[in-house]
Write a structure and sequence with these properties.
The structure holds two protein chains of two kinds. By secondary structure, chain A is an alpha/beta fold. Chain A has a domain of 189 residues: 3-Layer(aba) Sandwich (Rossmann fold). Chain A contains twelve helices and twelve strands. In chain A, the strands form two sheets. An eight-stranded mixed beta sheet of chain A has the order 6-7-8-3-9-10-12-11, sandwiched between helices. Chain A is globular. About 6% of the residues of chain A have low confidence. By secondary structure, chain B is of the alpha/beta class. Chain B contains 14 helices and twelve strands. The longest helix of chain B has 18 residues. The termini of chain B are far apart. The C terminus of chain B is likely disordered. Classes of the chains: A alpha/beta, B alpha/beta. At the A-B interface, α4, α8, α9, α10 and α11 of A face α7, α8, α9, α10 and α11 of B.
Chain lengths: 358, 365
């Protein structure tokens, strides 16, 4: 879209998270602000994986963090299980975070180097889990085992003794300890009436993965992607998967949202998005994926600097117009709105690529 | 010897071995690599982290500093072995004859020095240009690597540039004195896909325009496809497979090359296609396996593989060299795979598409 609109939001009880008109701005001194996210809306159904894709600096990580209110968004609403998180107090948010967990891009710096792996994974349980130490230990062992780390050898080691891929598995285990733990329900039930107990184990829990495979080798990337798919199926998780590589996002997502400079461009299921990309930016991203096939012709034309304009002073109208080949006067004067161009396929562009009625 | 210099390969590496001595033992990072590179040709070196590809490039560039490094073998550049040269002789070569672009453009540029001085340093040293000539040359270089507004950018510090811009500056620094050999060590790993595409296009164009030889080191087979003449797949410090890029992709024979290929999520796959990931991790190079280094992770492993390391030999196509006892597609490989699958070997099970998973007994991969 490089535009706004909510045509792509879906009604229904099975929507776990709805984000509407999310705006996140950061003051950078002298009265200036960086507009990291400028009014985006999206939703995630229970059990679904939403892929959020875009270049560095487009606001995709900020959007993910805004869901867990880290920091709280400038404006807009984040509705999780029917409750607007923006209305809650800090303490109430803290309790909700047991149902929303995040894993980060750099697996090594997201683990405390001075603590043992057993301590790192057990930490959430010390706050929310069963008070019995042996019970905690059993959960930690089970979690490490399910992410493919041998608990007996790993428990007393520290993060620097592991490779990047192993560290990412450990940080996934730390998130899952919270999301799959029934112990936290016992403690929070008293305070929160909307306990998810009736929803069944793990259902209605959100795992936000912020570029979890970007710093890993292709071979380890494949292991982590398979692991996330397995865990999602095994524990019935809902995921938001943030990445800049469309091939990775296509592999893991049920629905993909393409983001550019704080706005959404296109929303569709991955197979449609790849077959009939409607937004010129989606097309650019697709053309940039390196295909491991020497017979595929490479578009050698793309050499010029094509980078994001400054998010503190974005272009008027459609934000992608400065890099777009199909730009017209309309693009600078009017911001495109999200509209349907197919079955569950939405685009915010005045001149979409697909020759479909809009 | 001087007569055939023009026809001889630009770079001829023979049995190169690099070992780092650390308190727990000797890390054999490169274990006998040989290859040749002709003038104006491009070679892709592919492998996982820890396969020795970066150490190989740095050994040829003589950039492995420290007293705990031993390099043996020969690396003849233009007919002369670089491994025996003194540091001052290497300084003459660096920049003017061989240059390198590194993975992380932030740490390879000096954060306290403006772009201008970093780009002109080699120009002043090797070409004896004066200040204003060097400045003009720097402006031309930045324009060539497609940096908009080069006059202003020369006064910038590295932190004022984006990642893609910094890598363009690094490329300008490397190209400044027209080297005949460029090492690009994971030049795009730290960058976005769109910027990666631009930088690879830029490198390809400069390589072709200058008729410069280039070694492109990467972990991604997608990066070398279509951009290199030859590809060398490295594993645990040795060459697993070496072939012209087109024939390698048309006919992958080493199980490791095949496994790397299978790990890549292709855009042509439907969503949620299960990737055939490689199980386990690369071996410990302090005490590498006696047989084939890939045998603990190979779905086609047989007893022979564990006991004896396969030599790198030519197969039916003389340009295609392979170090494997059970090449992909051979009858022995098929028999071995079925046997391993029946025995429940994890690496065979992970490749088998019918794999199922349960939350209690996780499958590694």
């Amino acid at each position: 879209m490089a535009g706004t609109g909510k045509a792509h939001l879906r009604p229904g009880d099975d929507v776990l998270v709805t984000v509407e008109d999310l705006v996140v701005e950061f003051p950078v001194g002298r009265g200036r602000t960086v507009k990291a996210v400028s009014g985006i809306s999206f939703d995630i159904r229970s059990g679904e994986t939403l892929g959020l894709v875009g270049e560095s600096g487009c606001g995709k990580s900020t959007s993910g963090r805004a869901i867990i209110q880290l920091p709280r968004p400038t404006s807009g609403s984040v509705t999780f299980r029917g409750v607007d998180l923006a209305d809650l107090s800090d303490e109430e948010i803290r309790q909700r975070r047991t149902h929303i967990q995040m894993i980060f891009q750099d697996p090594i710096s997201s683990l405390n180097p001075r603590r043992t792996v057993g301590d790192i994974v057990a930490e959430p349980l010390r706050v929310w889990g069963p008070s019995d130490a042996s019970e905690q230990e059993a959960i930690v062992d089970r979690m490490l085992d399910s992410v493919g780390v041998d608990p007996d050898t790993a428990r007393d080691k520290r993060p620097h003794e592991f490779s990047g891929g192993q560290c990412q598995r450990i940080s996934i285990a730390r998130s899952l300890v919270m999301l799959t733990n029934r112990g936290n329900l016992h403690r929070s039930r008293r305070r929160s009436r909307s306990s998810s107990r009736s929803r069944g184990r793990g259902r209605g829990r959100l795992l936000i993965c912020d570029e979890p495979v970007s710093s890993l080798d292709v071979s380890v990337q494949a292991q982590i992607l398979n692991l996330l798919e397995d865990l999602k199926a095994g524990y019935g998780l809902t995921m938001m998967f943030i990445a800049h590589d469309l091939a990775v996002v296509k592999n893991i997502s049920d629905r993909v949202a393409v983001m550019y400079l704080g706005k959404l461009c296109e929303v569709a299921d991955p197979d449609t998005l790849y077959a009939e990309a409607a937004h010129p930016y989606t097309d650019l991203l697709l053309g940039s994926v390196p295909e491991p096939d020497p017979t595929v012709e490479i578009d050698e034309g793309l050499i010029e600097d094509g980078e994001l304009p400054s998010p503190s002073n974005p272009p008027s109208g459609c934000r992608f117009r400065t890099r777009c080949e199909r730009v017209t006067d309309l693009c600078s004067s009017e911001e495109p709105q999200m509209r349907a161009v197919g079955d569950d396929h939405f685009v915010a562009c005045h001149h979409p690529l697909a020759a479909v009625a809009g | 010897m001087p007569d055939n210099v023009a026809n001889s390969p630009l770079l001829e590496v023979d049995d190169l071995r690099t070992t780092f001595t650390i308190p727990t033992g000797d890390v054999k990072a490169v274990r006998g690599v040989s290859f040749t590179l002709d003038r104006g040709r491009t070679l892709g070196i592919v492998g996982e982290s820890g396969s020795g590809k970066t150490v190989l490039a740095r050994s040829i560039m003589r950039l492995n500093l420290g007293t705990n490094v031993t390099t043996t073998g020969t690396a003849a550049f233009d007919g002369n072995d670089v491994l025996t040269r003194s540091p001052s002789e290497m300084r003459q070569l660096w920049g003017s004859e061989m240059a390198m672009v590194f993975q992380d453009p932030m740490t390879s540029l000096n954060p306290l020095v403006r772009v201008q001085r970093q780009v002109t340093e080699h120009l002043c040293r090797h070409l004896n240009l004066n200040r204003s000539e060097a400045r003009q040359a720097a402006v031309d270089l930045l324009r060539e690597v497609r940096i908009p507004d080069p006059d202003t950018r020369l006064r910038s510090f590295p932190h004022e540039l984006s990642g893609g811009m910094r890598q363009r500056v690094c490329i300008a620094v490397a190209l400044a004195c027209e080297p005949s050999l460029l090492f690009a060590d994971e030049p795009t790993t730290a960058l976005d896909v769109t910027v990666q595409h631009q930088i690879l296009n830029l490198l390809s164009r400069e390589q072709a325009d200058r008729e410069m030889a280039m070694v492109l080191v990467t972990h991604d087979l997608g990066v070398v496809a279509g951009r290199t003449d030859d590809t060398m797949v490295m594993y645990a410090g040795t060459v697993a497979e070496y072939a012209p890029t087109v024939s390698l992709f048309a006919d992958m024979r080493h199980p490791y090359s095949e496994a790397l290929m299978r790990s890549i999520p292709l855009t042509s796959f439907p969503s949620h296609t299960r990737l055939a990931a490689i199980t386990g991790r690369p071996p410990d190079l302090i005490d590498p396996p006696t047989g084939c280094a890939f045998s603990p992770r190979c779905p086609y492993v047989q007893d022979h593989c564990v006991n004896e390391a396969p030599p790198l030999v030519e197969i039916d196509d003389p340009a295609h060299r392979l170090a494997c006892w059970t090449p992909v597609g051979s009858p022995e490989a098929l028999t071995a795979f079925e046997k391993n699958l029946a025995a429940g070997l994890p690496q065979a099970v992970a490749v088998d598409v019918s794999t199922t998973w349960s939350p209690t007994g996780g499958v590694d991969g």
